[in-house]
Amino acid sequence: MTEAEYRAVFIAELVNVAPDLDPATIAGTDHIQDDLELDSMDVLNLVAALHKRLDLSIPEVDYPRIETPDKAAAYLAQQLG
Fold first, then answer.
1. Of 1, 3, 14, nearest to 74 (Cα)?
2. Measured by CB atoms within 10 angstroms of the end CB, which terminus of the chain is less buried, N or C?
């Protein structure tokens, strides 16, 4: 997968966790908590959804590496590519 494909997967799972978000308005630099207003439980649900979809365990220490779609895409590509 490319980083763009990982970004699309990340945004799809993000919208599944927070269905009030419009994927067309999510910028690559939007912070999932500060800008998109996910709470800590939403973040855990997002991590679980990514684990289920991509078979990737994301340790808590790496959560800052998935705090924006751009960072998440790069992280996922690095871990799975």
1. 3
2. C
